[in-house]
Write a structure and sequence with these properties.
- The protein is 61% helix and 5% strand.
- The longest helix has 37 residues.
- The protein has 446 residues and is mainly alpha-helical.
- It folds into three domains: 92 residues, Fumarase/aspartase (N-terminal domain) (Fumarase C, Chain B, domain 1), CATH 1.10.275.10; 269 residues, Up-down Bundle (Fumarase C, Chain A, domain 2); 73 residues.
- It is elongated.
- The protein is built from 18 helices and six strands.
């Protein structure tokens, strides 16, 4: 991933230098286990353990000749070993995939732990923001059209619970990828004792694969990449809501806009939702990696390397981008401006049409058939809609137009409105009075 979107901790996990450090760690653990079992001479362990990891440049120089990354690593590392002959027993009984898959599992666990910490933080930020706005009235929208009164905290609570579920999926996926193997060519343990595998995996915080046919089956990595895609997609849902709320016509929400920030090279007045748009764009990148990674599950017979080239790109990129998206989304919500007055003004924008469902029910409760009540309310609503068409925004304020239209429509049908019941229907707080259990559950979310 390009440096623009790479945060330092996650970047280190996927650096070549760290990868070779992990490869050295795995090989030393295997060598120590062999020496303890008497498979290799005990005196080779210390020189190998003391040999510094080869630099990425040194490995690349050898690989330019060998065209094989593991052999290049082993050769470059042997060059750092004194005496060099001690390196003869490094990689004893192993195949390349034993080293690659086991070290990759460690990297995936390290990357996941960084992501889980950030996901925990985002869940807390969303939870606290929602609780702070549990009474901030706004209009709910379905299909982009005004529906009924809601509160902003209710909308954000949905995001908080979704992020918590996504985080928990990643926790489960961490277990799915914390799997290594040291079973040799085609996974039959022909040149390495299973006890070596057990010992090394325990030291690395991994578990041995139940079975490996030279490579670890990629279904666990598929689960992991899917979990990242879901996290990013929930972040996108948050960002999309902010983008909609920041549109000039709504003006309900606004991203942080720091001193000195510029919105447009041509139009100095612009304050664009660039963070939200970046989140939405990068979520697509992560989702784009799901299919290529899943296609690494079916391989030819015991092993091919069609998965390897994909994973070299997809796994670091997906985790780096997910890390950055979590970081952006947390900052977005932490610094979000919520214009409660504008939310209330938009709620009143259509003159009370948002109360139509409660009016319908009150008319039914007063003795009307549902069909007659629906026809009356819809006819009055259509009259209001025609009056609102083309009207300036300041002419749309207040609830009287719809209520007046209801009275007139009822009169034409020889009916009288139950005024006290209609009073209740036109009180926006009525629509959110039963949300208390939702916010009680939210307050317990961690």
């Amino acid at each position: 991933m390009i440096p623009r979107y790479t945060l330092p901790d996650m970047g280190r996990v996927w650096s070549d230098a760290h990868k070779y450090e992990l490869w050295c760690r795995v090989e030393v653990l295997v060598l120590e286990a062999h020496a303890q079992a008497g498979t290799v001479p005990a005196d080779v362990v210390e020189p190998v353990r003391n040999a510094p990891p080869p630099t990425p440049e040194a490995v690349a120089e050898v690989e330019a000749v060998t065209d094989h990354d593991v052999i290049a690593f082993l050769t470059a590392w042997a060059d750092n070993t004194t005496p060099r002959s001690a390196a003869a027993y490094v990689h004893y009984g192993m195949t390349s995939s034993d080293l690659l898959d086991t070290a990759l599992a460690v990297q995936l666990v390290e990357a996941t732990d960084i992501l889980l910490a950030k996901a925990d933080r985002l869940v807390a930020v969303l939870r606290d923001h929602a609780l702070a706005h549990r009474t901030t009235l706004r209009v709910g929208r379905t299909h982009g059209i005004h529906a009924e009164p809601d509160v902003w905290g209710h909308r954000v609570a949905d995001f908080a619970f979704a992020m918590a579920r996504s985080r928990d999926r990643l926790r489960r996926a961490r277990s799915a990828v914390a799997v290594g193997t040291l079973s040799g060519p085609v996974g039959t343990y022909s040149n390495i004792d299973p006890a070596i595998e057990t010992s090394v995996m325990a030291a690395l915080g991994l578990r041995p694969a139940d079975v490996a046919t030279q490579v670890v089956m990629r279904d666990g990595i598929g689960e992991w990449i899917s979990a990242l895609a879901l996290i990013a997609t929930v972040c996108e849902a948050v960002a999309l809501e902010v983008r909609h709320g920041q549109r000039s016509e709504l003006g309900e929400l606004a991203e942080p806009f720091r001193t000195g920030q510029k919105g447009s090279s041509a139009m100095p007045h612009k304050k664009n939702p660039i963070r939200s748009e970046r989140i939405c764009g990068l979520a697509r990148v992560i989702r784009g990696y799901v299919t290529p990674v899943l296609e690494g599950v079916p391989l030819w017979h015991e092993r091919d390397i069609s998965h390897s080239s994909v994973e070299r790109v997809a796994l670091p990129d997906a985790s780096i981008v997910c890390d950055y998206v979590l970081h952006l989304t947390t900052g977005l919500i932490s610094g979000l401006t919520v214009d409660a007055a504008r939310m209330r003004a938009n709620l009143d924008l259509t003159g009370g049409l948002v109360y139509s469902s409660a009016v319908l029910l009150e008319l039914v409760r007063a003795g009307m058939t549902r069909e007659d009540a629906y026809a009356l309310v819809q006819a009055a609503a259509m009259t209001v809609f025609s009056g609102l068409s083309g009207a300036p925004q300041d002419a749309r304020q207040g609830a009287e137009p719809f209520r007046d239209a209801l009275r007139k429509e009822a009169a034409t049908r020889g009916q009288t409105l139950p005024e006290q019941a209609i009073d209740r229907a036109f009180r926006p707080e009525r629509y959110t009075e039963r949300l208390a259990p939702v916010f009680d559950r939210l307050a317990r979310l961690s």
